Amino acid sequence: MNKKMKYSLTLLVAISIVSGCSSKEEVKSTASPSSSTAATATSTPSLGTASPTPMPSATATASPQTSSKPTQSPASSPKPSGTPSKSDAVQVIAKPESVTVLVNKQFSLPSSYEPTDLVYPDITFTFTEKVEKRKMRSVAATAIEKLFAGAKKDGINLAGVSAYRSYATQKSVFQRYVQKDGEEKAKTYSAVPGTSEHETGLAIDVTGSDGKCAAEDCFGGTKEAIWLEKHAPEYGFIIRYPQGKAAITGYQYEPWHIRYVGVDTAKDIVAKKMTMEEFYNAVPASK
Predict the structure, then answer these.
(1) How far apart are CA 278 and CA 113, in angstroms?
(2) Residue 129 a catalytic site member
(3) Potential cystine with 125: which of 160, 171, 242, 251 (Cβ 3.0-4.6 Å)?
(4) What is the rounded distance in angstroms from the CA atom of residue 200 to the CA atom of residue 223?
(5) For residue 125, what is the DSSP state?
(6) pTM, whole model, 2 decimals?
(7) Could you give the CA distance from residue 139 to residue 34 in angstroms, rounded to a whole number?
(8) 258 pairs with which residues across the strands?
């Protein structure tokens, strides 16, 4: 074999070897992405880089929960009007702050309600302590001051006995009467907590300045009681539990208990010889 042929053969072998090596590198290179992908896929979840894939489903699952909150809000937001009452009254009052709110055995104040505008009216009481039962809501306090001043001009001297009562106070008062007379009788002259007008801050029991017959039957027929019945509406008050209306109001006659409803409403109720229950077509309260 001559040198030329040997050289050609050597060159051919070299080319084959280089070719083979090149093919192996391509195989490695082709396999690399797949093993790299596999490695990435395996390691990604732990690193969180695959989160873009699961996130949509997580977001989709979380979204309804987030969006369901607004739906629940309206259901819970009416709590002031839908809260279970403090008593067994049939219906909870939606607007307890209304000056003409009807509170009785069928309509109870919400458990959370407390007047926000309670003040001490500048009138005489049968006691001197500055305690809760001296307070009234601002509008009623102004009106009672005018009523007392008007009575004095007519020679009638009045004194307050009891105005605002908190739920806790009313509960204590009612329980005391139950212990004394039994629940059935107590309910004819005292309110179950949550259903007392005193809790509105718009009602007050009054008597003569001597304090005799305070919140007692003997107050009826006195000059003070007669004046109140005749003139209270001029100042926005009514005798809340008038004589002969116990079957409607649920309470016996209380000439000392007056309730502020505003001048126009008071005059209208009295002119029609109605109770609040009749005026608002909400009778009977006693059943």
Answers:
(1) 25
(2) no
(3) 160
(4) 28
(5) B
(6) 0.69
(7) 83
(8) 204, 239
CA distance 268 to 245: 17
First to last CA, the chain: 132
Q: Which of 180, 284, 270 is nearest to 231 (CA)?
A: 270
Cα angle 152, 155, 157 (rounded to 5 degrees) comes to 55
Cα distances from 99 to residues 9, 27, 221, in angstroms, run 117, 91, 29
Helix residue spans in the chain (DSSP H): 3-47, 54-76, 79-82, 138-153, 167-181, 183-186, 223-231, 246-249, 263-271, 276-279
Q: Which tokens in the block code for residue 148?
A: 């007392």
Assign 160 to helix, strand or coil.
strand
pLDDT in tens, the chain (287 residues): 555 454 454 544 444 444 444 444 333 334 343 433 333 333 333 333 333 333 333 333 333 333 333 333 332 222 333 444 454 446 999 999 999 999 999 999 987 899 999 999 999 999 999 999 999 999 999 999 999 999 999 999 999 999 999 999 999 999 999 999 999 999 989 999 999 999 999 999 999 999 999 999 999 999 999 999 999 999 999 999 999 999 999 999 999 999 999 999 999 999 999 999 999 999 864 44
Taking the mean position of all CA atoms in its chain, how far away is CA 142?
27
Tokens, residue 89:
């009254």
